[in-house]
Amino acid sequence: MRARAAVVFALVVGGWLWLDARAQTNEPIVSGAHRFQKVADGVYYATSSGTMNVGANSPIIVTDAEALVIDSEITPAAARALVADLRASTDKPVKYVVDAHYHYDHAPGNQVFTADAQVIGHDNTYKRLLTNVMEQYTYLSSVRPIPARVETLKQRIAQERDAQQKATLERQMASSLAYLEQVKEVKVTPPNVTFKTTMTLHLGGREIQLMYLGRGHTDTDVVVYLPQQRIIATGDLMESQISYMGDSYPDEWIATLDRLRAIDFDTVMPGHGVVFKGKTKIEVFQSYLREVIRQANELRKQGLSADDAAPKIDVTKFSGEFPGIRGVGIDPAGVRRIYQLADHPEPAH
Ligand SMILES: [Zn+2]
C-alpha cells in the first residue's frame, strides 16, 4: 500500500512539475490545423500546424465572456477549423473578428462569422471587399503559381529518400491541392462594423484599441493594441519578415511606421512570421523601405523596367534582422508598385 501511495504521490508531483515546466517554457498547444502560442494571459497567437493552408497568423484575445480573433483566415474552411481548434484554449465563443486588412490570406473567412459576430474593419476594407478581390492582382499573382509548385513538389517527393522529409513534402502538396478546392467556397464578405481612425472595445475589464495609422502595406491596415499588456497586433503593416509591397504605399508606409513606433508596446504579434519584442525590427524595416525606394527610383531613372530593376536591388545589408533576404534582388511586385505610384500617384482620401 505504502509503495502504491508513493507511486501516486510521485505521479501527482511529477505531473505538477511537468505542467509547471510546460507553462514556463510556454510550449504551444497543437490543435487540429492550428498551433496556439500563449503570449500573455488571455492572449494567444494562432499559426498553422502544417496540415492546412490557413493563411495569415491570427492573434486571439480572450475576455471573460467572449473571444476576439484578428483575421478570419484564408478560406471559410480555415475559419471553421480555427473556431473548432480554439476550443483547446478556450470555451468562449468568437464574438469579434478584426480584419487586419483586406488581403486574400486574412479576410476570406469573414463569411463564417458575420451571422454571429461583429466583424470589424477599416472603412477602406469595406469598400475593397465590395469589389471582387479574388480577381485582383495580389490574389491572382499568389494563386497562379500553385499548380506549378505542386508539380515541383511531386518531383521532389518522387526523389526524396528521407521518410520524414517525404512526409513533410506530401503534407505541403496535400494542403496546396486542398486549398485550390477550399478557395472555391469564398464569397467575398466585407466587415459589418467599420471605422475611420480609432475604435475602442471594453470587454471584461480589458481595453482593446483598434487604430488606423495611415496607408502602408495597404490602405486598410488596422492594428489592435492592448495598452495594459503593452502588446500590439500589426497585421502585415509590420511582420517579423519582409512584408509584401505589391499593394503598398511605400513612402507613406515609413511615416505610418513612425506612428506605430510612438505607441507604448513591447510585444508585437504580426500577420506573418513570429511574435517579437521591441522596436528595433520596425526601425530596420523602415530603413529597408527607404533603401528599396531609393534604388528603385534610381534604376527607373536609368530607364530599366520594374521587372528588370527588381533583381538588381541589393538589400542584403538588412539580412541580419531579416534572414529571409538570401541574395541580391527583391519581389518584382514591390518594384512594380513603386513605378506605378510614380506614374500615377494616388492622393490620400
Ligand atoms: Zn497582406
Topology at a glance:
Layout: H1 2-25, E1 29-31, E2 34-40, E3 43-48, E4 58-62, E5 67-70, H2 76-85, E6 94-98, H3 110-113, E7 118-122, H4 123-128, H5 137-143, H6 146-159, H7 163-182, E8 193-195, E9 198-203, E10 206-212, E11 222-226, E12 231-235, H8 250-261, E13 267-270, E14 276-277, H9 280-301, H10 306-309, H11 332-343
Parallel strand pairs: 5-6, 6-7, 7-8, 12-13
Antiparallel strand pairs: 1-2, 2-3, 3-4, 4-5, 9-10, 10-11, 11-12, 13-14
Helix pairs in contact: 6-7, 8-9
Zinc ion (ZN) is lined by residues 101, 103, 217, 236, 244.
Describe the protein's architecture and organization.
With 349 residues, this protein is α/β, with parallel strands linked by helices. 39% of the residues lie in helices and 19% in strands. Strand 5, helix 2 (76-85) and strand 6 form a beta-alpha-beta unit. Helix 6 (146-159) runs antiparallel to helix 7 and helix 8 (250-261) runs antiparallel to helix 9. The radius of gyration is 22 Å and the shape is globular. It starts with a helix and ends in a 6-residue tail after the last helix. Residues 18-24 have low confidence and may be disordered.
Brief rundown of the structure:
By secondary structure, this protein is of the alpha/beta class. About 40% of the residues lie in helices and about 20% in strands. It has helices at about 1-25, 75-85, 110-115, 125-130, 135-145, 145-160, 165-180, 250-260, 280-300, 305-310, 330-345, and strands spanning about 30, 35-40, 45-50, 60, 65-70, 95-100, 120, 195, 200-205, 205-210, 220-225, 230-235, 265-270, 275.
Structural class: alpha/beta
Largest sheet: 8 strands, mixed
> Treating each run of at least 4 consecutive H or I residues as one helix, how many helices?
11
Topology, number of strands: 14
- What overall form do the CA principal axes indicate? globular
> Which small compounds were modeled alongside the protein?
zinc ion
* Euclidean distance between termini CA atoms: 78 Å
* Helix percentage range: 25-40%
